[in-house]
Write a structure and sequence with these properties.
alpha/beta, 8 helices
Length: about 210
């Protein structure tokens, strides 16, 4: 029974960000109430599934003929996902990809503050989109001051392990690695790998199969 509950919880959580984006869009339009059928139609999913998901997280049931109160449902979903507990993150590597991620505002929808970037090149120190780019020797200070939990690593392959070691020494417990290289980290530090080339190749392969 416990395994079934965990599976349902994970499946529900994986769908919640999409609901949240839709609801925030509706709130921005001034919409006060929304039905599960309207959410399902907008996202192209099962109305029955949406109804079950929302009933699981909603602090108040939907009103007949009106549906769920949008603002309250947004708060309920954010609480369910833990977005009320903000996570501070930093970027290590302020090249093209790092600067693009630093300027991206979508992380805020998921309870993540990307507060700064770091780079070993003095030429890249400054600001991007109003957020600071610091030299690497400031990393530990910023990590401790803002209780940073995640580092996004966007350096070239040849610099990845050295940058990773600096992240670990700074006390960051989780790394999202975009460098195409396997990293050596001590116990207690988790690493997730994102390879854009592999993802693009997989997408192209799926496109070819659908032709």
């Amino acid at each position: 029974m416990g395994n079934t509950e965990n599976a349902v919880s994970k499946a529900t959580a994986s769908r919640m960000p999409a609901y949240l984006r839709y609801l925030k869009g509706e709130a921005g339009k001034g919409v006060e109430y929304v039905s599960s059928a309207a959410v399902a139609k907008a996202l192209g999913v099962s109305a029955v599934g949406v109804r079950k998901d929302l009933a699981l997280v909603a602090s108040r049931p939907g009103k007949p003929r009106f549906g769920f109160e949008v603002r309250r449902l947004i708060e309920d979903i954010e609480k369910f996902l833990g977005y009320h507990r903000w996570t501070n993150a930093v970027i290590v590597g302020a090249g093209g990809l790092g600067r693009a991620i630093l300027a991206y505002e979508g992380f805020e929808n998921y309870g993540i503050h990307v507060i700064a970037a770091f780079d070993s090149s003095p030429a890249k120190v400054g600001a991007v989109g109003g957020k600071p780019v610091y030299p690497m020797d400031r990393l530990k200070d910023i990590v401790l001051r803002f209780s940073v939990r995640v580092a996004i690593l966007t350096v070239p392959r040849g610099s990845a392990q050295e940058a990773c070691d600096e992240i670990v020494r700074a006390g960051v417990p989780a790394i999202l690695n975009f460098a195409p290289v396997y990293l050596q980290v001590p116990d207690g530090v988790s690493v997730k790998y994102e390879d854009l080339a592999v993802s693009l190749a997989a997408l192209c392969g799926e496109g070819a199969e659908n032709q």
